[in-house]
Amino acid sequence: MSTSTVRGTVAGMGERANPAFAAGVVVVAVAALAYATTGASIQHHTYVHVMAGVLWTGTDIFIGAILGPVIGSLGEEQSAAVFEKLTPKTSFFLPSMAFLTIASGLALALRLDLFTNPGPWLALFTAANLIPVFLLLGWRLNAWSDWRWQLPFAVATLGSLAWVATTIGQFQMTEPAIVVALALVTVLSVQGFGFLMPGEIRIYKEMTSPAPDASVISAIGQQNAMLGGVQGLVQLLLIADMVYLRYGGF
């Protein structure tokens, strides 16, 4: 898929998801993050982070453990019909909740002084997320030759590596639970933005093609549902790590 159709794809998926829902989810996520990181008390900041995580994790577990197996028992036409309705909404809801959870969580760890020597770690974390995600997007959306992918990929790669280069001299070990959290979030981010999101885009492109193939929609949708379940399991590990970090054990 050429990235020249990205704007049309977002608009089209928003229309199918319900424009009010699509815009509302994004606006609420951005507003909640702005509030949590500026005027919110620590209690309110924590609430924003936890509730976003609950919505993200709960949705992934529901899709992977309950909805996925149910849809898997349906025929291709029925399965495709479900994913045609579900995918436009999850394509806005899940990335918004993931971004809000991750960003507010990092800010909260810094605010509570749980994250010592954050500079080089955040630089490495950024590079470990952006570079694989952009590479996967280029591969799964067949956008290697399109400058609209090449330009952001170059900016993300050079920018993140430059940040690493300027901070690596101050690298020191930080809290082990933070290292585990960064590793788990990297897995979630790369899988979510590098696999799940392109899968949703491919579903949309297939169902808006002149001759939609129900078997393709069903196959990609079921793969995404399975990966959503894996996301949920990784998120449960992340929650356990966060409890350990915050309270020193179980």
Automatic annotation (TrEMBL):
Keywords: Membrane, Transmembrane, Transmembrane helix
Transmembrane segments: 20-42, 48-71, 92-112, 118-139, 151-171, 177-197
UniProt superkingdom: Archaea
Protein name, UniProt field: Uncharacterized protein
Organism annotation: Haloarcula pellucida
